[in-house]
């Protein structure tokens, strides 16, 4: 069992804590209590809804694998140049056609985020993909500054296959580096995992991650998008909300696997961790700038464009 904070190891009286710090600590504690209560309510309603239709226990829909996976990329047309975004679409479509995948390109502003920052669009888009493709086995979110480089690698075989996951899973490791006392579970097997992502030098990365389609995934996305987390002033919005969730809710952590960054999250430089090497599945344009800047994404993309087009045109 993990504890959020280690017990006090000495009997010395506590040091004086400024009033503002006390209020900040009290606020965090209240958030944790409210979050736990909120998760309990969502879980209860989830269980009730499953048992309220028809006679006998409900049968969970098992995705047939048609398509095997859906790639979701949210496009920001206000901040990124149109030629660049068209190249992003071309990259996804060529890869998807090769493997029989579906693709979705929702746009910033397409969903009602209830006043939350636009970065939350990824969470709603993933839920939308599950609704539109109920028989897809996996949903892969891939941000718009990533390009798929390996035409042969697939999500179902090279990432989510249980035996493959067994070789990739980083166990008993701090969820939020470098020193979180909450760690990934050491006893989990590949078949236990429904949510796969990586870490970079800043913590959990929500720019490239995979979810196994199913009832648990719906539950998880509803928890993640809960108003409790969207309205709390996290510095990095949905990223820090996720870090909070996986550390405080074993229901989520027990289905999560961290894998090496280079599998689905290598960068064009080593600035944020693992640097792209030939054969890696994707590359992230580490210095990709928005359209208003002098160094657009196309500049950094130049050295990779011919590589992935050549790879995709091969047999």
From TrEMBL:
Pfam families from the UniProt entry: Glyco_transf_34 (PF05637)
Signal sequence, start to end: none
Coiled-coil intervals, chain numbering: none
Sequence similarity: Belongs to the glycosyltransferase 34 family.
InterPro entries in the cross-refs: Glyco_trans_34, Nucleotide-diphossugar_trans
Protein name: Uncharacterized protein
Keyword Cell membrane tagged: no
Domain of life of the organism encoding this protein: Eukaryota
Keyword set, alphabetical order: Glycosyltransferase, Membrane, Transferase, Transmembrane, Transmembrane helix
Xref: Gene3D superfamilies: Spore Coat Polysaccharide Biosynthesis Protein SpsA, Chain A (3.90.550.10)
Residue stretches spanning the membrane: 31-49
